[in-house]
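User:
Can I borrow your eye for a moment on a structure tokenisation matter? Would you put together a sequence-and-structure record for a protein of your own picking? Please set it down just below, with no commentary around it:
AI:
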Amino acid sequence: MRAWAGVVIAGQSWYVVGGEKNVLRPTPTPVLAAPALRVSVVIPCLNEAENIQQCIRLAQGVLYENGISGEVIVVDNGSEDGSPELAQAAGATVVHEPHRGYGSAYLAGFDAARGAYIVMIDADLTYDFAEIPRFVKELDAGAQLVMGNRMKGIQPGAMPWMNRHIGNPLLSGFLNLIYRTNVGDAHCGMRALRRDVLPVLDLCSTGMEFASEMVIRASKANLEIREFPIALHPRGGKSKLSPFRDAWRHLRLMLVYSPNFLFVLPGALMALLGALIMITVFAHVSLFGHSFFIHTLVAGSMLVVVGTQVVGLGLCGRTYGVYHLGERDRWLERLQGRFRLEHGLLLGGVLTLAGLAMGGVIVGRWLARGLGSLSEERLAVLAATAIITGVQVVFTSFLLSILGLRRRD
């Protein structure tokens, strides 16, 4: 058994290890944990030599003046004008991300961030760095994602007329419509979030659509989103935006993230309209004195077939989101709790057999007429529609069952 005794020699604390042979050793100096950073200011940068050092100094000054412990991270996205060297000389942490894209830059910056809060801001001096404490205050108050809203604070020349009055309002409105958010400026480049929500958001977009994805994922995860007005100033240097390409990328992402709006709703409307058209033809209903015949019936059949397929794709998309992307879909969960593979096979089988039965009737009539002329176009179209729809239901049911197989980690 060892005995411990402490002594002080020449100002140094020592301890004596007792035993068969006493050994005098210096007391280990305790390792102090580095103070936790409160804020990481992440700035994506692509050829911003004209502005980057001023942005860094502004961010550092705001953090210092408000007593906020933090860091400034500049993510260089392949600059060719010396921006990363200038950023490093100004005291920022420089992260190199060779894959071009707004989202790619921010994803690399998030990986390097050490602060509890992350403030996102562009390197073009369009945003006021003095607003950073307001974002921090909202996060301190419980918000998980804080958005700036530029729309009422746009300075002359800061935003093109088309972006201000058409592009941004339409895209933000469309996002709010689909995802039931209440964000007035979904594409504002100054925003802040808690670093601990990044695993929940699971962001992956690499382009400008990254801004929309963050709002969409936050809404789906029921995060606390807050927004307040900020100013937008004319940028310094050359703009990197491509309005039509970037707008399409935002729109494309909104649709892809919403199988209901992209597939289920349009497909259901097409199938319902097609069914109504077919019923109208078989019931000999006239509209404004006009009757409908075989060509109208074919059009109705086409709508039913296409609509059924599109609905099936939508259900597959929703199932994939639940089981492979970790999304919550209460409607789909209730639906899958009541209906199983066998129900889909039964429905598809009944439709297919009904279509085959009608086809048998047509063949029987043809044989009864001595293999002569046959005028059963309407019944043939109905039979084909039932068979095709039935086969679609059967195989879509199998695909839904496959997608529903849970992965084991």
Summary: The radius of gyration is 32 Å. Residues 75 and 95 are 5 Å apart (CA to CA). The longest strand covers residues 39-45. Strands lie at 4-9, 12-17, 23-26, 39-45, 70-76, 93-96, 117-120, 145-149, 191-194, 225-229.
